[in-house]
Amino acid sequence: MRSFACMVSVLALAAAVPALAAAEPAAPAQTQAQARAGAAVAAPYTAAQFFETKSYRMPSAYGLAFSPDGRSLLFASDETGVFNAYALPVDGSAATPLTRSTSDAVFPLSYFPNDARMLFTSDKGGDELNHVYVRALDGSVRDLTPGEKLKADFLGWNADDRTFYVSSNARDPEAFDVYAYDAETYASRMVFQNTGFSPTEISPDGRWLALDKSNTSADVDIYLADLQSGGAPVLITPHQGAVQHGSYTFTPDSKTLIYGTDEHGEFTQAWSRDLATGAVAPLIQADWDVQFVSYSPSGRYRVSALNADASTALTVLDTRSGQSVRLNGAPAGDLGGVRFDKDETRIAFTVASDTSPTDLFVADLSTGQARRLTHALNPEIKESDLVEATIVRYPGEGGVMVPAVLYRPKGASAAHPAPAVVLVHGGPGGQTRRGYSAMVQHLVNHGYAVLGANNRGSSGYGKTFFHMDDKKHGEADLRDIVAGGDWLRAQDWVADDQVAVMGGSYGGYITAAALAFHPEKFEAGIDIFGVTNWVRTLQSIPAWWGAQRVALFDEMGDPAVDAERHRAISPLFHAEKIRRPLLVVQGANDPRVLQVESDELVEKVRANNVPVEYVVFPDEGHGFQRRDNRIAAQEAYLAFLNRYVRKAD
Hints:
Layout (H helix, E strand, L loop, with lengths): L31 H6 L9 H5 L4 E2 L14 E6 L6 E6 L6 E2 L8 E6 L6 E5 L8 E5 L5 E3 L8 E6 L5 E10 L2 E8 L5 E5 L5 E5 L5 E9 L2 E8 L7 E2 L9 E6 L5 E6 L7 E6 L5 E5 L4 E7 L5 E8 L2 E8 L4 E2 L9 E7 L5 E8 L2 E9 L5 E3 L17 E6 L5 E7 L10 E7 L13 H8 L3 E5 L9 H4 L9 H15 L3 E11 L1 H12 L7 E4 L5 H6 L9 H8 L6 H7 L12 E6 L7 H12 L5 E6 L9 H18 L5
Parallel strand pairs: 31-32, 31-33, 33-34, 34-35, 35-36
Antiparallel strand pairs: 1-2, 2-3, 3-4, 5-6, 6-7, 7-8, 9-10, 10-11, 11-12, 13-14, 14-15, 15-16, 17-18, 18-19, 19-20, 21-22, 22-23, 23-24, 25-26, 26-27, 27-28, 29-30, 30-32
């Protein structure tokens, strides 16, 4: 089941440095502005309190979340500070840990169909070289995809329950071949040797393999390979012009492929293709992108979701009655992660909102009655103290309206204006969405307004908006972020001399670029594993990006011919212009943005006699998995903002 929250591969970034900068712990006392606002504003919580909130994740959408006996639910949790796999009894009793890693994050993939063995995945320190492992009934663990510099992923089960599928680049670092594994002996055999495609879906009967192929960032085709005949992949989406296609899923009877396409309008629609006749027909059409489509084991229930203005609008449709399943007893929020039990009497799912992190629920499909299984929010935090987001739109250049997710701190007013942060998402092509963020809520709880901007080039707002920044990065998209700062300053409840910019990955690049190319527009910037040298970053893309490299180069420019432009937009080569304080945070094992990116930027900005703080995590990659590191990073963000942005009241 492929998600179309963003149809183009997203470049993520990170790196590292010799020493970990000590961050001043943020005092949990009220800010002066909050104190003057009155007793309605609670004393702020610490970063540790926010990150003591648990994170829960469902297993793979291709896997089996319910145990064969239906008594337990498989999930991941960072309860110990590191993600591990757990079995949670659906009767509400205590969960049982299935793995006990103290260093590397572990994420469950699937139960076995007929016993409680488990497949899971893990990498080493965030290097993204995931392997697939099996946990036997006695608790022993076996690496099913051994090898150095290898990356593997789980593709699902055959309907016979005796075979599962894994993709791996063991043969060629740039190509993911597909292997069938025997569920008893773990013997494997290659069923598809890849030659430049991205394997996405395999039919339940094991016959059909759907493959996506990027021609450009705006033009993606689907090919179909018949694994029984062993024939070459066949193009099934011939078209004129630039059209994006992508596979969602096969129906459980293996007769139909469900896929996404933006051929018929601004947004991605879901269409079906009959594998016998080739006939295509619309399945789901809306004025928002269809994020995903999946089915229950028999196909009776169809699950789909729309990316509706930065929120997920999910539907569980009973195809027999044509009616949507109505769930009772679940709180308001975005539903996701729907998983069915074997006999389709129950579903497990997640619910998250701006003020409540992801929790796990189960529901009876005959009644729709839901039961909550977890409480993720730290009980020391009152949900009523947290802030609900609103969706705003502000003007960018050329009449483009920029969507954004706004968090306004309690107590902020014209009499007591708040400092603010423009938050930039990753990408290129990502999206700031509503939902719980400990990072955001912690800053807001300490009196900072946060504007999560969706600059042109963001996904979720139509293909025209999405492609507005193609080969124009660091130009109008950057000016959209600057305009976000201007919009904040125009609000009477925002302190117009206390606005910062921050972001991770591509957002880290935009942060550094804002300080370099618009040096007077923000009081400070926080660059979290951001690209600083596009020439080097695009030349050092990991080999396993393989077929996706074409789309990235089409969007960003090929470093072989566009190096001059890449140099012109890279903050590293213009670091002498940076005059405002900068915090850089990096993971040493980041395979996408090498540590040297951050090292060199820090060195050059320090040469300007500008305050620079640098935090490096030796055991993280592109994104921070360990709770202690997330707390340390969060404390560094707040201490930095308090030091250089918040002015004395």
